[in-house]
């Protein structure tokens, strides 16, 4: 009996196979979403801008920079991190409010500028990997455009402080894992995903989705390797918990919680702020931020389905749990997500083709 992935792969370009009513409904939904996004994202962006202005000198990057400086000077990571967060009235409980120590330890070896250079090199590797992955699935022009969009989606690495942002490095590693994967050679993707987990625990959904795909495809060696990785990650998180608890005090501030419930306007705002769309007014950037999801869905195959589920799942989580100041979590799907913008024109053409075909048949 074939699994759902075999059926999906057999569809080829799935949007072109839709019945007329479904294609028309999807176009109507997309048009409505584009119009809605033009108005809905601006208030969320303004809330984040207002918050950032109120705490400009005490932002997250300043916190992580100071922690890294103390670690480089020889202090224990957990002593420095918990003390800095307490001093700046940042929460220290639950323990996940304190970042994993990997990036600070890396800073002590190569510095923040070194991490930024590593991120740039990873971006170059992602560009090559995407070009190879799309070969045979798109024409040369579309493939070249996707590589350009991927580069623009990685615009955050150009920031002078990007070496202090955990999500930038973790997002590059996840994109690399995504574009390098092949059924015949999956261990480089496993290594990249493991490194992403070591930098930011929010990379775990990517690995869990990969595990689900491997189980559906009955790729048991991958299942075993991914299971071992997740078990190692769980052990690492327990050790992280112990490290935080060793220095936490009873009066430390708790987290505000993760119940922002801001809806899809937040991930769209994030894409507008974290990619090359930053040069556009938010009322124009937000509609463009929707289109990559359509592009990846329209690509079809395992590649397109994995991308669509990964991006949609991340955006759904942002919509439910993130507060305006957490918008940078979306960096975990960049630069991969933005490459879908180059795939969107053919996806829209497939929808139009599905409608026209049904009209000719009726």
Automatic annotation (TrEMBL):
Keywords linked to the UniProt accession: Membrane, Transmembrane, Transmembrane helix
Keyword Transmembrane found: yes
Sequence intervals crossing the membrane: 21-42, 104-131, 143-166, 186-211, 223-241, 274-296, 303-322, 328-348
Domain of life: Bacteria
Protein name as annotated: DUF2029 domain-containing protein
Species of the source: Aurantiacibacter gilvus
Lineage, uppermost ranks: Bacteria, Pseudomonadati, Pseudomonadota, Alphaproteobacteria, Sphingomonadales
């Amino acid at each position: 009996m074939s699994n759902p992935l075999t059926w999906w792969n057999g569809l080829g370009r799935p949007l072109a196979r839709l019945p007329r009513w479904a294609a028309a409904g999807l176009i109507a939904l997309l048009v409505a979403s584009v119009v809605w996004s033009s108005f809905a994202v601006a208030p969320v962006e303004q809330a984040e801008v207002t918050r950032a202005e109120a705490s400009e000198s005490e932002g997250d990057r300043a916190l992580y920079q100071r922690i890294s400086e103390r670690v480089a000077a020889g202090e224990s990571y957990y002593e420095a991190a918990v003390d800095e967060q307490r001093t700046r009235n940042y929460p220290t409980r639950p323990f996940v409010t304190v970042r994993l120590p990997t990036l600070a330890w890396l800073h002590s070896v190569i510095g923040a500028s070194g991490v930024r250079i590593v991120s740039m090199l990873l971006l170059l590797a992602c560009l090559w990997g995407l070009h190879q992955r799309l070969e045979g699935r798109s024409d040369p022009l579309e493939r070249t455009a996707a590589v350009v969009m991927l580069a623009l989606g990685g615009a955050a690495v150009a920031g002078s402080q990007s070496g202090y942002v955990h999500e930038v490095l973790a997002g590059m590693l996840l994109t690399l894992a995504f574009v390098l994967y092949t059924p015949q050679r999956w261990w480089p993707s496993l290594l990249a995903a493991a490194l992403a987990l070591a930098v930011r625990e929010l990379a775990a959904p990517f690995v869990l989705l990969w595990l689900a795909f491997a189980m559906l495809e009955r790729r048991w060696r991958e299942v075993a390797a991914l299971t071992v990785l997740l078990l190692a990650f769980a052990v690492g998180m327990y050790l992280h918990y112990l490290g935080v608890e060793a220095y936490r005090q009873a009066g430390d501030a708790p987290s505000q919680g993760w119940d922002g419930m801001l809806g899809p306007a937040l991930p769209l705002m994030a894409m507008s702020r974290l990619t090359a769309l930053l040069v556009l007014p938010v009322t124009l950037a937000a509609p463009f931020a929707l289109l990559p999801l359509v592009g990846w869905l329209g690509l079809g195959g395992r590649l397109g389905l994995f991308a669509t589920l990964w991006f949609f799942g991340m955006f759904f989580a942002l919509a439910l749990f993130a507060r305006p100041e957490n918008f940078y979590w979306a960096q975990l799907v960049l630069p991969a997500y933005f490459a879908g913008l180059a795939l969107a024109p053919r996806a829209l053409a497939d929808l139009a083709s599905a409608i026209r075909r049904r009209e000719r048949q009726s």
